[in-house]
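hey m, so remember when u said the tokens were messed up on ur end? i reran from scratch. heres the input so u can diff it against urs
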Amino acid sequence: MKSALFICIAILSGYALAIAKDENKMEIFEKEYPDDPVCIISTSMGDIYIELFADEAPKTVSNFIELAEGAKEFQDPKTNLSITRPFYDGLIFHRVIKDFMMQGGCPSGDGTGGPGYHFEDEINAALLGLDKIKVIDSKTGNVDPRLMVRSQEEFLQLVAAPLVRRMGITSDEELKKREEEINKRISELTIKECYENMGYKYSDKFKSHEPVKGSLAMANAGPNTNGSQFFINMKDTPWLAGKHTVFGKVIKGIEVVEKAGETKVNQACKPETDIKIKSIRLYKEKTIVKNGNAEIEFYDLFDTVKKSGEVKYILSLSNQSDKPLLNIKLECTLPDELTFVNSTGRTKPKDSKNTRQLIFEPLGNLKEGESAKWIIIAKAEKSGEAIFTAKISGLKSGDINLTEKTVIKKAE
């Protein structure tokens, strides 16, 4: 089943800056919504940074990130068994059309594959203005170009036949009897109504964008057939509005998309040289601290996509010296908004009556060049701004204190 396409980008006003703090590098992104997550599509031609519209297309964004991060089961096309691993790693962009789009996410590499399930569209056709645009221009009598109707046969297939079915007409006799009514309905038909007759369903709870260059959208094979395939627009495509869920936009790396459009392709629009997806991962803003004998990476990973209320604090300590680090101690303090759930890593927390003060067992010996990681998992008790602190002691240069501010949302 070959996948079709659509896409959309954000309006060009009201952007918010997201700055990643890093001692060596600072990334500055222009995002439409400051709390939106960012993912990196790492390809063989370069990296593409995407703002994901988590509030506008929550189910779509959640599906995309869960597949990308290896957190969602899918059907292995080779064995038909349900498995969990980073879905997109190693796949290719199997369809690239210059001045149109690049499409990927098919495990079969030809546009026929998916994760073994489908889910519904998340589109607001009214916000796209499709409820105001008539299928037939009353002045010219022409079919609106968005419908891409090129013949009378296509008009019957895309406009007339779905309307007749919607009207409940099942016989030639009834068709002739209601011909005048049908013609009147066609003259008044909007694009939104035309698409609804085809089976598309819309919701006014979503905000949708016009499909323009740099947009990210789900590829599909018709209404409510989303799975894993997606595409990135290389130009504005208004004829796709209302047919595909737009769930992100390029905020850095558009030159990679443009370069992909120049690649040589075969008759099926498949690049002659594979454009590989190395990985798709959430971009994580890190605090990096260096001293004489150690480097520490510290960041939170709040599930902004699912809004499940779970927060992961990830702390990695690397021995940068040529001698072992001995008796390293880690202490963490959880804010009132969070409750400790579990931890994984090099050492475990000691038993304590204070569940917000976590004192980990000492790390006796961290060899030269070796790293240790701790992941502290907490659950949100209430929405708000949470301040998490961590202290590492035992380093020759003295104690290091770390602070991470997390904007959390309690699971509904």
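this time it looks ok to me. The two ends are 37 Å apart (CA to CA). if urs says something different then somethings off w ur setup not the seq
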